[in-house]
Amino acid sequence: xxxxxxxxxxxxxxxxxxxxxxxxxxxxxxxxxxxxxxxxxxxxxxxxxxxxxxxxxxxxxxxxxxxxxxxxxxxxxxxxxxxxxxxxxxxxxxxxxxxxxxxxxxxxxxxxxxxxxxxxxxxxxxxxxxxxxxxxxxxxxxxxxxxxxxxxxxxxxxxxxxxxxxxxxxxxxxxxxxxxxxxxxxxxxxxxxxxxxxxxxxxxxxxxxxxxxxxxxxxxxxxxxxxxxxxxxxxxxxxxxxxxxxxxxxxxxxxxxxxxxxxxxxxxxxxxxxxxxxxxxxxxxxxxxxxxxxxxxxxxx
Length: 301
Prior knowledge:
- By secondary structure, the chain is of the alpha/beta class.
- The chain folds into 2 domains: 3-197, Rossmann fold (3-Layer(aba) Sandwich); 206-299, Orthogonal Bundle (ProC C-terminal domain-like fold), CATH 1.10.3730.
- It has helices at 3-10, 14-27, 45-56, 72-77, 109-116, 135-142, 173-183, 196-206, 208-225, 230-250, 255-262, 268-278, 281-299; strands at 38-41, 65-68, 86-87, 99-102, 125-128, 147-151, 161-167, 187-191.
- Strand 2 (65-68), helix 4 (72-77) and strand 3 (86-87) form a beta-alpha-beta unit.
- The longest helix has 21 residues, at 230-250.
């Protein structure tokens, strides 16, 4: 089984994914991530999320984690990491890292890459969670063969995220298994062979939480106008979304089929959908996602 086949199968179903993970855990039992040194560059929202997730899931230990950060404010977010493992500029300590996670703003990357490159070596795996920075750009600037590009989303902060990732040809199956387990500490992950799908994922799962909050906010405001207090409207909407997601996740029916279960002919839901269809709401949402995709492409140039 090659890398492509491994991840195509691994993305099939929850049960299949679970069984395959058990198989690969048995096969690669000799690989202990806790023995790996992890360097995280940047301690913004996502850098901090990965640091805390890797520690809380016992993927690694605080003794094996090193931080490269610029500000004291970032340092305070990860106070559990000892001072001797926190640095402000790249140096020889970079060489001891097995996995390097780059979580800086894309506009700061070129300067970072110039300073980081002298301390990297071919056996290290570099994971980029920077928006718009391609595998080619990462390779050309860092000159190492093992590179992963990943796009997580905001719910990663609570272990409910969705991360889409692609990689260079330099990684083998065992290394990719470790990377997928690393990414899964923040939720679920999906491997894509076509790197351009990461730009597509940026528009769907990356920006998607904001679309959900936008719709929730609109429903909360409607609830207030219909007589509920803000806290009551928030409870109604939050539980409605939570319950609907769990039902859809456990059901074999499509979204369209589930809609029909709620929208009886001549009923209240049908009246609401009549307005949605008159306003072309579905098309507007799709066009918004397409525009987000175009912006992701622009950021990558």
